[in-house]
Amino acid sequence: MNQGFTIFLDQASEIAPKIDLLYYFLTGITAFFTILIFGVLFVAAYRFRRRDNKIPAATNTSALLELIWSVIPLGICFVIFFWSAYLYIDIYKAPKDPLDIHVVGKQWMWKLQHPQGNREINELHVPTGRVVQLTISSQDVIHSFFVPAFRIKQDAVPGRYTRTSFTPTKPGVYHLFCNEYCGTWHSSMIGKVVVMEPDKYEAWLAGTMPGEAPAASGQKLFQSLGCITCHGVQGPSMAGLYMSRRKYQSNGLGAEHEVIADDDYLRESILRSTEKVIVGYRPIMPSFREQISEDQVQQLIAYIKSLQHPDQPIKPPGNVIEQSGR
Amino acid sequence: MSRQSSVGSEDVIRINVLIDCDYKTAHCRLIDDWRTMSTLNIIPTAVEPSENYLNIEHTVKSWLLTKDHKRIAVLYLISITFFFIIGGTMATLIRLELLTPQGDLMTPETYNKVFTMHGVFMIFFFLIPSIPATLGNFLVPLMIGARDLAFPRINLLSWYLYIIGGSLALGAAIWGGLDTGWTFYTPFSSAYSQTNVVVALLGIFVAGFSSILTGLNFLVTIHKMRAPGLTWFKLPLFIWSHYATSVIMLLGTPVVAITLSLVILERTLNLGIFNPEAGGDPVLFQHLFWFYSHPAVYIMILPGMGVVSEIIACFSRKAIFGYSMVAAASLAIAFLGFLVWGHHMFITSQSVFAGLIFSFLSFLVAIPSAVKVFNWTATLWKGSVSLETPMLYAFGFIGLFTIGGLTGLFLASMATDIHLTDTYFIVAHFHYVMVGGMVLAYLAGVHFWWPKITGRMYPEWLGKFAAFAVFIGFNLTFFPQFLLGYLGMPRRYHAYPVEFQVLNVLSTAGASVLAIGFALPLFYLLWSLKYGKIAGPNPYGATGLEWQTSSPPTIFNFDTPPDTSDQPYPYHKREVPLEH
Q: Do A183 and B325 touch (CB under 8 A)?
């Protein structure tokens, strides 16, 4: 972190230099046209300043000129659009073998959990060179997880999961900000992201309370909340459910719709169990709304994710469009 | 006010005519009197008409119950200035708090209320009504040769709705405050905020109807009340831009009214619309809100473009280059404006596919905007350019709108938007468009038509000085915020990391210069009401129909039917005034 004045920002993720390149290109375009317009204004104001009462000739509109200065900006816009779209898809495409970090925002702190179960508050330790995927939710209002040095930002929206990913490249300590106004202590909902060499990260992991892996906690919850009573033997099995295509009816009635059993679907089915009932079952499951915390929902989902049917491997997490939410 | 004594007898005749007549027949009776009155129109410059819309009656009642569009415009002028001062005071407090990294001037609760009030008052009670309700109200009938708007009573109703809405919002701000930000994002606004959200929303809801009715009034007026011979392509670009603005006001505002009432319902009756705990969807609010509030940005900029078109033509003594393209660009911006709301939501769990489409459409808005800027600039070429105060502001508008528009490309482009959205980059971008664009255009317009509205000239040197102060102060305030945003400083932060301080100090320093620039016109324009040079009907030798009548105009605007034979901006047929 720089003390004092700077106009440059650390590039600490794989995407950061690529986004900066587009940023500098846009800055160049902006500077060029700003100077052009100001320049022409000044030149015209001087060269054609009013010296006498000679009446200027009538304006001759040139359709050709108008066409030129419509088409050139359009061309530039196309370049920016495709360049930007390429990077955007790159950020949101499903990463391979990511380090899965669960993030929960609440007024006014960030709660994070590593796949091994280690928990952190307002601090995130990540290794360099490995893609990190954040699954983000919020316990109350909308927050936004923003690490300027990584050039990534994703809203934490209550009632659904959002995802983003990044690959840290440069060890260091970077700002973590809440970037969506969330109430009184919004500007205190800050923290830091510590990027470490992989071996140092392993050492750090080993040195902290390992805690329990989310899937293991989820398994315990599955027992203690009584899910297993129905979903164990006679009820709908959870094995192979995750990311499979299912048909459902609202409240077990009416038209059938298709859904991919992703995190958002599982979350909804736990918290509002009768909304989307799989065809063939009755809406008898109790709703767990206001009974379990956002963390516990994530643990249950982690457990369900881990239950793969031996014959039915988990499908890759959908295409890009489904991946980023609705 | 000085009066012209020689026409006293005709005065008496006309006053009798007006007092005797009811509204509908007054016009006919006046036509009968044209021949006798016509002496009044051949007034040499620098003489005020003895009787005009301002001095015909002086009672408070005559103002509060007026149906004259010009008086209603003045009522709006006073009321939006009041809200601008409140919003500006809040801005001052924000800049003072941000002078130091620690949150030491106010508590976070207070700071959150202050920036919310700044946004609410500036957006809903200053920027949206600014040009349409004041200059638009005053000039739309004059520019098309009509004696008033189509619905004068509804016009007065609009002002009352605005005042009721403004009072409610002000009441909410004073009692209980409001800390949701002007965007009212759910579920914070609908379920979590402890402040007076419902009353504030009611205020904005009511003021929204003022906007809808003004839009309706303008549309009907422009369609039905143009003077004989004034065909669509003879209309000034000011009218075209107000036409486009009115379409947005009429079609967009109901959506935000519905959205805000849904928030009120959720807050009061616990209906599950936006709050996920009650089964709602918080992002739905953003879709509905931006469906209006993005087009609303064009409500806030299109009228400014109209003002600038008039001024550029007048002070370069040339018709606007590519009149029909500039007119069409206004309509194109209004249309495209309804299709781009999703670019506010690239990181709000919107799908990548939707993001791509909204991004693409957003880039398309750049084209009509660019055409306008290039066409204004081309108008100057081979003109006879005179840099008087309105022209200085118009130049400022073009330059700052260019920067505001180009930085919009950073935000339409998804990859850079992820990094920049909701940081100070956004704050800088929309202030370049809203303040650098709209407020400068508003000041340009107020100076340009000040002689028409009041009959007096503003003091030129002070005007120029203030214009430079605004331009320099503005850039010093907001340019550093682009850098702060890129460096990652989030908006709506009460305290910030220490490395952002230098740029924040620059910004606050700039704000003090900007404040001087904004305060000066307030004083010298009031001063000019009594001491300003008497303007005469057409101090700039401008071509619009509004300059064919006296300054200030009489209550029915035109004593003789205005001459509509010319194409728009026939400056090549006019003398060039060496000084006004």
A: no
